[in-house]
Design brief:
39% of the residues lie in helices and 18% in strands. It is of the alpha+beta class. It comes from Streptosporangium album.
Length: 44
């Protein structure tokens, strides 16, 4: 979603820095994280 030239990231209620970290984890591992906290157990 675009707002005033900036992209606002939202993943099912996760916003801001947490969403950016979840996206980075997805790009690195291929696994989607849909709830916090992101733990190793959720990725395996």
């Amino acid at each position: 979603m675009q707002y005033a030239g900036r992209e606002i990231t939202t993943i099912e209620g996760i916003t801001g820095a947490a969403a950016a970290i979840a996206i980075a984890v997805h790009h690195a591992t291929g696994r989607r994280v849909r709830d916090l906290p992101i733990t190793l157990d959720k990725l395996l």
